[in-house]
Input
Amino acid sequence: MIRAVYDFATGPMLWFSSAFFLCGLAYRLVRYRVLMSKARQGLPADFRPGWALASIVHFLLPLNRTARSSPWSTLAGFGLHIPLLVVGLFFSAHVVMVEQRFGLSWPTIPDAWADGLTVLALASLAFLAGKRLLHPSLKGLTEGKDLAVLGLVALPLLTGFAAHQQWGESLLMLTLHVLSAHAVLIVAPFTKLTHMALFFVSRAATGSDFGKREVGPW
Ligand code: HEM
Output
């Protein structure tokens, strides 16, 4: 039974989740563009690509003001995102699966790196969740769904780590890992995880506007 679920999750369901994820993010980008055009109707079209790009770069490096005022949160942000992207895209088991299903392949990281990076991502998630629960001003802004997103992102990391350490029943752990990764892909376009696409366009818009007003776009 578990074998059948695993085969389905690493086979047909992979096509479905990937397509849903990509189409969902594309839909959110198009919708953002439509809403933005409506909001700007009648205003002069004076988008400033230079300010927009500078603002994105300042956030990614990070040279923005938030990075200076909240260094620990910034560190946790990078401690979460670097492992997510590096392990998600370059862990050998992931690359092999993509190669088998989609015929695409690229270099991998040494397997030993995956454990350390996953622990770093989990520690960063715990920090971000702790801050949401304890920080006086952030506490008031935090809703259940914010914590649910953090928990959802933690699930594939926890189960992937457990599977790699061979904790519990190996096939069960791997199946839970793959299913929780599908859950992240499927909900991403319709939760705050959509920021993986919208970050770039909303930061570009803010950077351009704030740059024009000379109040500092980052
Ligand atoms: C192009 C890729 C991405 C960009 C540019 C990006 C950018 C950001 C930024 C600017 C923040 C807010 C600051 C911070 O906490 O670091 C953030 C938070 C976060 N991101 Fe991403 N991200 C990306 C991909 C992802 C992916 C793939 C996931 C998970 C599947 C993810 C999960 C999260 C989570 C859980 C938070 C914390 C939210 C919270 O504290 O409530 N991000 N991201």
Remarks:
- The domain at 2-212 is CATH 1.20.950 (Fumarate Reductase Cytochrome B subunit).
- The CA atoms of residues 36 and 205 lie 9 Å apart.
